[in-house]
User: Fold this.
Amino acid sequence: MPDSDKTFNKEGLKNVLFVAISVCLVCSIVVSTAAVMLKPQQRANQEYDQKQNILRAAGMLPEGSNVDAEGHTVDELFSEFEVRAVDLKTGEFTDAVNPDSYDPIAAAKDPAMSTDLTQQQDIATIGRREDISEVYIRRNEQGAIDKVVLPVRGYGLWGTLFGYLALEGDLRTVAGLGFYQQKETPGLGGEVDNPMWKAQWPGVSIYDESGDPAVELVKSRSPKDSPAAKYEVDALSGATLTTKGVENLVRFWTGELGFGPFLKNLQGQSTA
Ligand SMILES: Cc1cc2nc3c(=O)[nH]c(=O)nc-3n(C[C@H](O)[C@H](O)[C@H](O)COP(=O)(O)O)c2cc1C
Assistant:
């Protein structure tokens, strides 16, 4: 065979395959290395986001800003909170998990760490409830509880709404409610994120005279001076199912199967 016929044939099948596989290999190494290297940054961003959501629910961070009126940053403001794990069955604080790394939503998927709810119990339509959750507590200079922020969730129309319910130090007055993840229709159920709708929540009472969850989302409000008025928030127009979902989730998480026992236990300590 003449030498010229042995020259490198770059379009031969072997060579095309070799180049294609090499390119795939290099690309997959680059993508996996980037994914591994960016993991800590992603985690840090998620934590920062979570801190912002908690602070916004507590009314400590204005909408659309990541500093408060005095210029305090998210990290500075969040450092005023203590993060504690709570056993939802007993309503007591627990050291069984590390609240800094514990994920209550992941725990709710694990039968060993959660409780299956009956249809009657499951008014928030969450299926299983984690046995341990976490709370964010802010105390004033005298040590009295000033704010408590609770993670809450429940089904709307299209999916689960995830958010935080913040209470004042009396543990029965709402300081704010905000959702950080929801799939409701923009302009209808998605109005749960509308600052004007959210502005109605601060000051709402969560328990009636007998200590039962009493928040009600209504199409027409009771007269301001009537006893029912303090439990009421406007329904979302054209979104009855999302509205009912929000009412149910607030009632569930402030009730006996949610943070009800914990809030009762804490009541005695709230005025130090
Ligand atoms: C495209 C589309 C999107 C909708 N999105 C929502 C929604 O996000 N939340 C909700 O409660 N209802 C939503 N609805 C309306 C519900 O199907 C249902 O009609 C409504 O909850 C009844 O509320 P109303 O009694 O206030 O009219 C949607 C309807 C359509 C056609």
Summary: The CA atoms of residues 170 and 214 lie 16 Å apart. Strands lie at 81-87, 92-94, 114-116, 128-130, 132-139, 145-155, 160-168, 174-181, 216-218, 232-234. Residues 78-267 form one domain.
